[in-house]
Amino acid sequence: MQKLFLPGEITERLNCCDRIEPLRKHPANPLLVADRPWESHIGYPCVLYSAATGTYRMWYHACKELADRLNPNAPLVDGFVMQYEMYLCYAESADGLTWTKPELNRLKVKEYGPNNIVVVDSGFIGGQGTVMEDGGDPDPARCFKLLIYDMDGKGRDGIRTAVSPDGLDWTFVGPYPILPSQDTPSLWHDRRRGRYVAFLKTRLDGKRARMISVSEDFAHWSDPQVLLAPDLADAPTLEFYAQNAFHHWGHDLGLLNGFDFATQRTDLELIAAPDGLAWRRLPTRPRLLGPGDPGAWDSGGVYPGTGDALAFGDRCGLYYCGSSQRHDGHDAVTPPPGIGLATFAPGRLAGQQFTGDGWCQTIPFRCPGGRLKLNAVAHKPMTVEIHSAGYGGPIAGFTRDACAPVTGDSQAHAVTWKAHATLDALRDRFILVRVHGEKGLVYGFEMTGKKATNHLPAAPRHAAQAGE
Questions:
Q1: Which H or E run contains 109?
Q2: For position 265, which CATH number holds?
Q3: What total number of domains does the chain contain?
């Protein structure tokens, strides 16, 4: 069991404040750029790791400017006449950094010759596509699943779903549209709960906002519900463009794509959900990733990719796309749009920082027992005290005075008390964890005991999936 000291999930604290760690852009970025005849622009990567082959697989959005799309019947999207044909393309990598675009020659061979296109829009515009590998489906022809936006230019637009045995040859399934959405949906496979979650784009009061729909079988979907929308605490020009989700350190986390209509720039904000459905913004609305410096390949804006948080050495990584062009820019795009990687330390996206001699305390949870390991940077001795839920106060034998202090920087400080090396005596009891420190950082903790009664079953751990 792992938990973060996540902002918004702290019951009490003294001389302590929220700590957010921005994502670090990989120095090799951009890892993939628009460099093929069918790629005027690329973006919205979905990256999966294949344990069977030991390779990274990427599906990404590409669009080709087509002059013949400028006709009176062309649809308008956000006030612009659509003059693109849009594709879902495929790339591979041995290390997640150096990518190749294989010649698959499945679609558009007559127009482009050898290419890596695997899905073509049905008319005038396709949107962000998410691919997931579903090893739990008994039908091998449905091992891979796709959710993508499509507009046929004849009055139909929204979500289409498809299945594939290999992620390359796709068969559309279900009605079109199967769900309503605008052009930046995404799909999340909530493995812990055995369900598929679709994040959809809509408008509320004229502004871009997000909806959610859930399916147990990838065929029947719940009616969409409003999920996230700008509120009175936001700038009046803020809108929500896209989002993703991933499981990390016992939490369901995501990146929400904030779009400032005034500057036409986008950034990525950390969000969380206690149950994978009730997504919320954190108290300070922390931005984890923003546009690059002027002239950089991502200086105009950044947009979220989809897929698990993957392991890269001692760090975790999430893919994103960026452009040097602002959202509504009409100037030449130089450098070209591309796809990059942003990394973070496992279990250290967010936590609590001591501003003096103080403490912070978690919300109550059921104790699984086992050893307690603290993910913290302790510049001075740090101790842990276990409290009863409600008004119970410190539990005898697990007080601060009985705790052996820890110091230094570790994601797994072993915490013990004079009479207890483990939390087994508290198994199945509702507790709160209070950490005392000074001039240090505490990000989270791990308890190594078996899951307590009434807890959800754990998901199968992906070979390269980080931080579960």
A1: helix 109-112
A2: 2.115.10.20
A3: 2
